[in-house]
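Here is one such tokenized protein:
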Amino acid sequence: MSSFEEALPTILAHEGGFVDHPDDPGGATNWGISLRFLKSAGEMTYDLDQDGDLTPKDIRLLTVQDAADLYRRHFWDPLHLDEVSTQDVATKILDIAVNMGHTRAVDILQQALVLLGYDLEQDAIMGPQTIGMTNQAEPTWLLTEMRHLCASRYRWLVHQRPQNSVFLNGWLRRAYS
């Protein structure tokens, strides 16, 4: 089965350190953890400057270990990625979830499975049927479909919000890695 510890370096490499780009709707982000995410998750334990509010300063203070703990608790464990038999597939699902959210990650996985001929209800739930079919699928083909779907999603985001074009090249590199 797959290992969170093996997936983590890929996510950290894609996310990098602190950024606060004015065109990023997530706001200040560090190691892929955005201010918007921390607030929506109610993660007040990360009020690291202890001023009673989550601010960009708290995001700047996040450590790699903080990010790893959040990835595991909010993404890896809820998606049952330790049950995915191929490490590269589990890593890609985690990468998509961190970047686009779990619902979108599972939706992309299920779309890829359907494109490969699996009879699967696309409900964006990472349940036993989705995990079972993921483990049955030929990993190279599954990853290829997932990568194409990610790239398509990124291009759609730029079409919907042209300010995102500044991120497109990086997103496409990520999609195809």
Notes: Strands lie at 29-30, 33-34. The chain has one domain: 4-137. The domain at 4-137 is CATH 1.20.141.10 (Chitosanase, subunit A; domain 1). The first strand starts at residue 29 and ends at 30.
